[in-house]
Amino acid sequence: MRGKIGFFKWFIGFFLLFLYGPAILLPVFAFNASSIVSFPLSGFTTEWFSVLLTNGTLHVAARNSLLIAVTTAIFSTLLAVLAARASTRFSFFGRRSIMGFVMLPMVLPEIIIGVSLLVVIIQMGFELSLWSITMGHILICTPFCIAILSSAFMNLDKSLEEASFDLGQTRWNTFWLVIFPLVMPGIVASLLIAFTISLDEFIIAFFLAGTEPTLPVYIWGQLRFPAKLPGLMALGTVLLLVSIGLLLIADFFRRRGIRKTGIENTGGFL
Amino acid sequence: MTQPIIRLSGLDKFYGEFQALSQIDLDIQTGEFFSLLGPSGCGKTTLLRAIAGFETLSSGSLHIDGVSMEGVPANKRPTNMVFQSYAIFPHMSVAENIAYGLKARKLPKAEIKASVAEAINMVGLEGFDDRASHALSGGQRQRVALARALVLKPRVLLLDEPLSALDKKLREQMQSELRRLQRAVGITFVLVTHDQEEALTMSDRIAVMFDGKIEQVASPQILYGKPSTRKVAAFIGMMNFLDAKVLTTSGDNLEVEVQSLGKLTLPLEQATGGLDGCNSVGVRPEMLTILMGSQTSEREIEAEVTEVYYYGDMTYYDVKLPAKEDPITVTMRNTAGREVLEVGAKARVGWSTSSLLLLK
Fold it and tell me: Which of A170, A178, A263 sits opposite B89 (nearest CB)?
């Protein structure tokens, strides 16, 4: 019995180290006062962070990424709300196969999506731009959003809508007064998931980026210059903090939603 | 008679090939406590939802207060519904739930506040105004659902199995409370239930439904005492059936040959559903008596006790009659000095011709 528990402890320890060890190295080297990324550490500095502040190309890339991620999050969630609502509330001809096709990009290799979108956009004579990347991102994010929102809509008691309608409210107001507040935690989760997927997506952004790179594409480009590596470590640290922050926000909303509606806390997806 | 509040005529509802309602004709009077009673799947909920406006009719017409409801959506009908799941909005407080319909009508704030307070009083939820609705018990949710609907002063309140989620004690308490509430507000209540006891104790009139059709509409007493068909008789309470054959009719009397009981003369009115196709006689278990000692009855028959169910205040006997294979049931109140018979005992079963019903 004891030996079993001992093994389990070790297993979990290695597991966590394997998962988070590399990520912990980021902030360590971001504050290391040497342009060479290797042990032993040679002192504390915030120099690499001030480099970030003055790097114009980086700012442009970051702004591009944010713009794409926000747009992607909003559009994917919007599309997913419609799809989730339709698939959970109405039955129509070919519903299952339509939903199957909508969910397909989730398992399709991104490189295939990237190449095919590139071919289509060029053939149609459009220029590669931030919009082409955004479209690609919406395509891959929407299935994730649908998966999250479907469960939110599925958990909604149909008689709540009927009650609202029965009490004299219009369908439109019923949506905003009853359905929307109750699926709000799902919508927030969907926005955040789409945002994070889009923010660090590389392959599609790489294929479809014209002259304007996103942050991951920029980082990839900078890896060729060893001198830039500590700066990237600092950038990685910032991104790490932003990701953790987003997760905390998402969980806050989820918990608040649970408290408000009194649904049993089942842990959620985060 | 005044104009009925609800008039259904020739109402049909199909789901694809399946006919959920067939040729429903029904008038419900203003101020009535009306119940739709039937086994699950008989179409009673579909009928209620059709009145509410959640189901479209395949054919036939529905008038509420003399106005055709064709093309009138649920939010424009003078009906409100109490849902089986109560459908209390979980993200709103008790007061917000009750104010919901009033806000939809865009009434002034002060008026809404006064009406909500009144409704909260009416259902006995004083002090619960700001309580989150998920922190309510089943009975309290039920009250919120009632208040939320009644505060709108609908012409008809529709209740879809409102008591089925409550435990027995609370259910009985809510039964009498619903009745009291209905008398107090004077609104027509239409209740759907599969619980015959619930329907009998609360309703002014009951429609018994089977397979999408209305079998009989009557007051609880008539439904129990003079069911018009064997189906209704078997569904409402317990009923013993004996094979029967009408031999001759002369004036208001019928000559009937009844299994085990022999040749009898019954008045025509005891064929409650008409004479056509009558092939059995029904008798309620409590209309039969097991005679003790020197007790006598209008008629009696020798029988053998095959099973005894002792309930404390009552004893249920299964007794076998001569010339009938299945035993019939006799219920006896355990009054002072009455002895409980044992299985295998011989018993004299007392009966009277006036308690027999000729049914099809």
Answer: A178
pLDDT tens profile A65-121: 999 999 999 999 999 999 988 888 777 777 788 888 888 888 888 888 888 888 988
Q: What's the full length of chain A, in residues?
A: 270
Buried b (16+ CB within 10 A) or exposed e, A56-80: eebeebbebbeebbbbbbebbbbbb
Chain A nearest-CA distance from B35, in A, is 20
Examine residue A130 and state whether it is found in any structural domain, yes or no: yes
Range of the domain at A172: 55-261
Residue A102 in domain: yes
Q: Looking at the complex, does the CB of residue A164 fall below 8 Å from at least one CB of chain B?
A: yes
Query: Could you say which architecture CATH assigns to the domain B6-225?
Result: 3-Layer(aba) Sandwich (3.40)
Angle between helices A56-89 and A180-199 (to 10 degrees): 140
Q: Which residues of B312-324 are buried (b: 16+ CB within 10 A; e: fewer)?
A: eeebebbbbbeeb
With residue B100 as reference, give the H or E element that holds it: helix B94-104
Nearest to B223 by CA among B239, B212, B211: B239
Q: How many CB pairs under 8 A join A and B?
A: 72
Every domain of chain B with CATH number 3.40.50.300 lies at 6-225
- Say which DSSP state A212 is in: -
Query: Which residue on chain A is closest to B135 by alpha carbon?
Result: A262
Coil, strand or helix: which one is A53? helix
Interface predicted TM-score (ipTM) over 0.90: no
The answer to whether the Cβ–Cβ distance between B91 and A168 falls below 8 Å is no
Do A157 and B105 count as a contact with CB atoms less than 8 A apart?
no
CATH 2.40.50.140 residue ranges of chain B are 282-352
Phi first, then psi, for residue B265 (nearest 5°) are -110, 120
Amino acid, single-letter form, for residue A187: I
B188, B32 Cβ separation under 8 angstroms: yes
Condensed to tens digits (0 to 9), the pLDDT of residues B141-183 reads: 999 999 999 999 999 999 999 888 888 888 888 898 899 999 9
Into how many domains does chain A fold? 1
* Inter-chain touch A163–B81, beta carbons under 8 Å: yes
**CA dihedral for B147, B152, B153, B156, sign (positive or negative):** negative
CATH architecture of B282-352: Beta Barrel (2.40)
Residue B109, H or E segment? helix B109-122
Cα angle B102, B103, B105 (rounded to 5 degrees) comes to 65
How far CA A82 is from CA of A85, A89, A90, B32, B192, in Å, comes to 5, 11, 11, 44, 35
* B104:A173 CB<8 A: yes
Kindly report, residue by residue over B105-149, the tens digit of the pLDDT: 999 999 999 999 999 998 888 888 888 888 888 889 999 999 999
Q: Kindly determine whether residue B134 and residue A262, on different chains, have CB atoms separated by under 8 Å.
A: yes
**Is A163 in contact with B83 (Cβ distance < 8 A)?**
yes
Q: Is B326 exposed, middle or buried (0-12, 13-18, 19+ CB in 10 A)?
A: exposed
Cβ contacts of A206 within 8 Å, gap of 6 or more: A114, A216, A217, A220
Tell me the C-alpha distance between B211 and B13, whole Å: 12
Pairwise CA distance, residues B220 & A165, whole Å = 33
B52 in reach of chain A (CB within 8 A):
yes
- Asked whether residue A126 is domain-assigned, the answer is yes
> Of A101, A176, A179, A175, which Cα lies nearest the Cα of A142?
A101
Asked whether residue A178 is domain-assigned, the answer is: yes
CATH number at residue A248: 1.10.3720.10
